[in-house]
Amino acid sequence: MLPLRDNIPSRTIPIVTYALLAITSLAFLVQAAADNTGEARVAERLGMVPARVLHPDQEHLVPVPTEFQGRLVLAEKPLPAAWLPDWLTPLTCVFLHGSLMHLLGNMWFLYIFGDNVEDRLGHVGYLIFYLAAGCAASLAHLVTNAESTIPTVGASGAIAGVMGAYMLLYPRAVVLSLVPLGPIIQTMAIPAPFFLGIWFLLQVVSGVASTAEVAGVAWWAHIGGFALGFVVAAALRAIGETRPPVEERRFANQWGRVERQRRYRDKFWN
Question: N or C, which end of the chain is more exposed by having fewer CB within 10 Å?
Answer without folding.
Answer: C
